[in-house]
Every structure is written in C-alpha cells, then in structure tokens.
Amino acid sequence: MNFYILTLFPEMVSQAMHTSIIGKAVERGLLHIEAINIRDYTRDKHMKTDDYPYGGGAGMVMQAQPVYDAYCAVKERIGYTPRTVYLTPQGPTFTQNMAKEMAIEKNMVFLCGHYEGVDERVLEEIVTDYVSIGDYVLTGGELPAMVMVDAISRMVPGVLTNETSGISESFEGGLLEYPQYTRPFQWNQKEAPGVLLSGDHQKIEEWRREQSILRTQKYRPDLLKEADLTIKEKALYRISDL
Ligand code: 6GU
User: Fold this and answer.
1) pTM above the 0.90 mark?
2) What pLDDT digit, counting tens, does each position of 118-167 carry?
3) How far, in Å, is the centroid of ligand 1 from the Cα of 163?
4) Smallest CA separation from ligand 1 atom 11, residue
5) Among 144, 138, 169, residue whose Cα is nearest residue 155
6) pLDDT tens-digit profile of 173-218?
7) Cis link prior to 184 (omega < 30° from 0)?
8) What are residue 235's DSSP bridge partners?
C-alpha cells in the first residue's frame, strides 16, 4: 500500500514512519510511505505557501495552488483519483473500523494543514474524507496523518507477523484487551494469575474473555453496546440491549 503525505514538514513524517514495525514493513516492500513537500510546488518567488485570510482574523491560510499542484503530481503518478484525507478536528473521529476499511486501498493521500487552515476551494477540489483523531486541537495535521498511517498499515496483510499479530487485541469484537503477564511469577509482592500457568487452554481463554468484558465495563462502558457478546454473557455481566 502506498501513502502520500502532503506536508510543509516532510522531515517530521519521514523520520517516524521508517522505524519499528511500520519501518520493517517498508523495508519488506509491503508499504511505501512518502512525504511530499508542498513548498516544492510553490510558484511564488519567495517560496511562500500561505497568506493572510480574506476578511481578516488571526493567523495565516495555506494557499490553494501549491497544495493543488502537489496533489496533481501524486495523482498523475497513481493514474486515478485517489482517496484523499484532510486531517481536521472538524471531521468524524477516526476509528478501528475506518482503519480496516481504508487498508483495502492501493493508494491514499493525506493532506496536512497548518496555521489557521487551507483555502476551502482546494479542499472542495481534492478531499474525499475529512477525519479527526479526537476532540482536542493540534498545531498541524502531521501527527494525525501518522496516527492514521500507523493504524491503517497494521491492517495491511503481512505487516503484522506472528509475533506482532492483531488477532486478539483491543477493539476486536468491540472489547478491550485482557491484561498480560510475564516472568517472574512474583514481582513486588504480586503474583501472576495462577490460571495462566495452569496449562489449561480452555480455562485460560475463559479467564481472558472475562477480563476483557470486565475491563470494558469498567473503563469503556460506551463500547459494550456494540460489542460481540453472547446472550449468556450479557445476562452474566448485566449488560442491557437498550
Ligand atoms: Cl486531524 N488535525 C488537527 N490539526 N488537530 C486535531 C486533529 C486533526 N484531530 C484532533 N485534533
């Protein structure tokens, strides 16, 4: 899968996206992550990419032309109109389901805004999806773009290996993940749960399932309404269908 990130701060993106599991997947040729410097596409003699907002007000607005030309260069390489995300707190909040759904794309473009935003006319022209990563304000779209690229990449077949599998993890079945333990058996006067050392795989699975439900109930009760629970589990944990 190919990710093209349009940004005024390409170094910020390139660094982070070439380390750890994502970096390994890039090395293995499963992912291509490219930061495209919007400034390379300015036609201004002073390399300017922003200007004062019409109507006045604080801050600067990113101009349409450099963004559009950067986008068109990518589109030309891809050969069709790609799914293009504009990172903005005004969009719907990014979810695991969105990550899964976007992972089937062959190419995706991310536009990172800065300052007070981007000229609305170029957004109307190129953006297919407006996405926020949560209800707080950031200084730019780079971190949100990297959050999305990470979450989407994990869902691309082959990116997660056996050791880093995504089968049993938070949000699978709409539940949080169960707690994990490793050696030593006793640490800081605390023992690991005995069932995990019992060798009884059925019991271990039952215990983990219970822990997942209890954790979700305690920390994210809002998730339970949508979670995949059996009728028995709903009765046992007093989870209503309403
Ligand atoms: Cl996607 N962008 C910015 N600038 N701030 C945000 C955001 C995005 N999501 C939450 N806050």
Assistant:
1) yes
2) 999 999 999 999 999 999 999 999 999 999 999 999 999 999 987 667 65
3) 32
4) 137
5) 169
6) 899 999 999 999 999 999 999 999 999 999 999 999 999 999 999 9
7) yes
8) none
Question: Helix 142-153 to helix 20-27 angle, to the nearest 10 degrees?
Answer: 70
Residues with CB under 6 A from ligand 1: 87-89, 132-134, 136-138, 140-141, 144
